[in-house]
């Protein structure tokens, strides 16, 4: 049985190889004619013969694979040779068959009645055959490269034809003028042809970027941010649907359309664009392709340039607003029209869910802006604040007093009262409102000093008012501690407000001390001085005048205790400086002594009047008693000074040391036995 099969193979293999070579020559002729000489040759007989040859090859291969190894080595070698020849022949056959199949597909494209979809299908099959390189020798064949070039040319021709036809069916036009722009979209109602074009474009993986760019830049973006004149007409013409809009190129911010108008226009445009929304399958349509390119950009533009701008910034406005429902309905409309991309379909729904949060933020931003506007008011009007409105009593027994604050801080306090009331009326916004109050107070401590820096540092009344304003706000915080104590934001704000006001006021006090010391630079007492001139008197009077001016602007503004403490501190330093210079004198002549007494009298007449009760100067100004005693020393005799000292038990011991009294005695009196006795008694 094996021998008979062997003989059959030895006869059939050469015959099959001969037939393969013949058909290879025929295919080579066809390829050369069509892809080299560009001549058309009938290849139907060749294809039929190839089919018969393929059947014979398969039967012959089956026969050779069934043969068993013969005992004869010669027979085994012959079989191997036949198998090798057959494999090489089969390889040549496959190449020839592939080339002829591709050529046959190209020829079928020329048949009449081929539509766009069928042409694209044929090209797809050709592309598949060209990409399936079973034999590496194919890529080196010159005519195989010719097949690739023909495919690329045919594919490019198809795409160009489809684009031209699509642009004819869906006409997108825009014209710009000096100040306006006109956009026209005309969609023809030839649904069958539009279906063929769109389906074929989608099968070629066309992304419609040009259409998306046109719609975004020339249609949706202007509709969202500008007032437009929109005409949508699908009934007037039996041949086409018309969408036409025009708008100004430059539009003022206040003329931008409201979100309801925008959503209505966008829905109207989508409704009419749906005439080109060809449905390819349950999972694919033109709108889905467009959505993958532009939905995220469209939704982002809508949210950032329209919706966010129209979210109410007041509680009343939010109560009346229907924006949340409107946005949800619009999102549902987009899904109903199949304008979905699978990734950004919940963007608008999520935004609708966040509108309340955005409203709260905008509301608090508006609250902050209003507070900042109040702070910027240059209010020179002062308001009297009674003690119970200004100072937090607590457990202190200190006598309280009224003071002055600016109209600005009173308005700000009333505004904070309103905000705090709203916070507890609307529980959902309470935390945000209270955090905004903390921000307002923090901004007050920064913005007001910066905006009024020159006034606060140069004008004593302004610095005093700012100190009071800060204390007033601090008191407001303490008064509302039961409402705010659970919020960490206010843990240190009250103390920080007080410190802010005190820092500014202390800076003013330092300026006043500097100014006083500059005036006292004219109060010079030297060894060579014979008598006091006008220079010393001018210096003293200048300081007294400075104190009187401070009284005029501080006494009715500052709380009584603060006024007394501040001004008495300045007066005390002034007296201390005067007496220090007098005590440094080594020799005080009668003329100088009389002049000093005159200056002390000026001070004794003027300084007590700085306070509401002149007699209070004894308690408020530490150096006042010493000044009175210095006058006694300057006017007194050795005997009187000795009696006032009274062996260290007299009134002079309250303010002077023994060495200070001795120095004054030596400066005032000549060296006599009486002076020596007086000095000896001062121990």
UniProtKB/TrEMBL annotation:
GO biological process: cell division; endoplasmic reticulum to Golgi vesicle-mediated transport; meiotic cell cycle; mitotic spindle assembly checkpoint signaling
Domain ZW10 C-terminal helical: 538-682
UniProt xrefs under Pfam families: ZW10_C, ZW10_C2, Zw10_middle
Keywords, in A-Z order: Cell cycle, Cell division, Centromere, Chromosome, Cytoplasm, Kinetochore, Meiosis, Mitosis, Nucleus
GO cellular component labels: cytoplasm; nucleus; RZZ complex
Family: Belongs to the ZW10 family.
Protein name (record): Centromere/kinetochore protein zw10
Organism: Anopheles epiroticus
